[in-house]
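Complex 398.
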Amino acid sequence: MSDDDPAADGDADADDFRIETRAIHAGQEPDPETGALMTPIHANSTYEQDAPGDHRGYEYSRTGNPTRTDLEENLAALESGSHARCFSSGMGAINTVLNLLSAGDHVVAGDDVYGGTHRILTQVYDEYDVDTTFVDTTDLDAVREAMEPNTELVWVETPTNPLMNVNDIGALAEVAHEGDALCAVDNTFATPYLQRPLEHGADVVCQSLTKYLGGHSDTIGGALIVDDADLDERIGFYQNSVGATPGPFDAFLVLRGTKTLPVRMDRHCENAAELAEWLDAHDDVSRVYYPGLESHPHHDLAAEQMDDFGGMLSFEFDGTLEQASTVVEETEVFTLAESLGGVESLIEQPAAMTHAAIPREERLAAGLSDGLIRVSVGIEHVDDMKADLQRAFDRALE
Ligand SMILES: *Cc1c(COP(=O)(O)O)cnc(C)c1O
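Predicted structure with pyridoxal-5'-phosphate bound:
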């Protein structure tokens, strides 16, 4: 999919290869002692020192663990960064970006960021005198207007949840930098296979490894990736000081997931595109939100910024809140659950689940209708997905 030129000159370094090859080889060397191909799960807390302070790179596993190091190197290579740091959850990673701020600083963030991001900004950092202005980040003038002299961070997510708005990373990074602020991008929905924000000028990339990078709905994790050694060192200080680091088994699971990221994403994208077309033509569906559809308001930007359009989509079922609830309850191929990015298809109803706390009028004004349904399109056979949705639609409308 990506045709960036691998440096064919000189010694082969995993970082020089195309992303499909980097996914499998970056940070991965056979164990020098045994020849074991796969990174061992270093279930270990502390490390022998030959003399006080004289160690072989590791002292204590909160600070560094070899399984985690291999994952960090792999993720840095995937995101076109120089350094990565892993955390015990996506929120642990997001918190660490916010640790870089001080009381009195200001943040500009998208008004449709992940709910946990909204919560930590408004209910945790607000208490520490860090104010956030939430704006429509698809409107660059609104973002410029929201910038204050004390704005230190512009937080961007793209595509966003659940309406799949696409934000212009390069333009937003420029606005951030004009104001001497950092630009952080939550790249969870797109993954580095489809979009590499550092290449567009972002300073920090955040990943919830729980989603596509892990890919199998069997672990929780997060990461921050940068292309700047000084910034990495600052992040590393908070990673170690706060201590929300993943255990080696979680790091191993994610490393197992990243190897197949490209093939999984190809299928996620293919299935989502076909399902989006099918839904778009369906009489019981009034609107489909998928950046791959030409009717999507940000289709051209998505086509430019992303290598493909991803596996997430939402649609408006033409019915009441209750009828849409019946749809999500009746599907069998699609499991009713929050989260996304695993090989299995998931379905949820924002108005009754993730966004239920928002008053109805406000929710409708934000474009989240009663019949809105979000799906994480898995890698099952797409015909089974269509049949499953058709059965659920019929049930809901009978
Ligand atoms: C899930 C998610 C997070 C939070 O990650 P956790 O691993 O659940 O802590 C952050 N951003 C986005 C876009 C997510 O989908």
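The domain at 262-396 is CATH 3.90.1150.10 (Aspartate Aminotransferase, domain 1).
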